[in-house]
Amino acid sequence: MTHTDGDHIGKNGEFEKAMMHPAEFDYYRAKGGNNAEAIWEGDMIDLGNYRFRVILIPGHTPGSIALLEENTGLLISGDSIGRMPIYMFNAGRNIDAYIESMKKLDDIKGFTKILTSHGELLQERSIIHELIEAAEAIRKGEVLGEKPERDLPCLLYRYKEVAFLYNP
Fold first, then answer.
1. Tens of pLDDT along 23-32?
2. N or C: which end of the chain has fewer CB within 10 A?
3. Inter-residue contact 76 to 18 (CB < 8 Å)
4. Phi and psi dihedrals of 83, rounded to 5?
5. Was domain 6-166 assigned CATH 3.60.15.10?
6. What is the pTM of this model?
7. Domain assignments of the chain as residue spans, ordered by start
8. For residue 139, with 0-12 CB atoms within 10 Å meaning exposed, 13-18 middle and 19 or more buried, which class applies?
């Protein structure tokens, strides 16, 4: 799995093992998960017709990963990329690590499309530049936050076509 937010782990107990980066283990176990198996940067996950390379992209969560399938040019990003607000509040979220992770992905060749987890699921890789710009502008105080519609311990920061829920 790309990370262990609650909406991504709900049915994991039905599997023999749930593969994730070890930085996610504590949170996963605190939510009752007991079938975690470590995967690391550079590991390959072979699903027969598809082979995914694990890329560590901390920021959204400490052990967030992306999965790159170079033969199809597809990157699976979990919640780290998307047009829905990126959650960057609560324990383990780190906007500086997020920016570095997005720059890392931007430097990787071999994908043209990104499969996200929420909202409009298929995105062009150009969204990465927009997310980097947005996160850097938020960090520098160049974007003003507004109260989100839901009662959350953060502010909503909008930038061009992307947004972050962030608690500085």
1. 988 988 888 8
2. C
3. no
4. -95, -15
5. yes
6. 0.94
7. 6-166
8. middle
Q: Token pair for residue 78?
A: 């979990």
Q: What is the DSSP string of the chain?
A: -----HHHHTTGGGSS-EEE-GGGHHHHHHTT---EEE--TT-EEE-SS-EEEEEE-TTSSTT-EEEEETTTTEEEEETTS-SSPEEE-STT--HHHHHHHHHHHHH--S-SEEEESSSS-EEETTHHHHHHHHHHHHHTT-S--B--SS--SSEEEEETTEEEEE--
Residues 6 or more apart from 84 whose CB is under 8 A from it? Answer: 116, 118, 119, 163
Which tens digits make up the pLDDT trace of 94-126? 999 999 999 999 999 989 999 999 888 899 999
The token duo for 22 is 């070890």
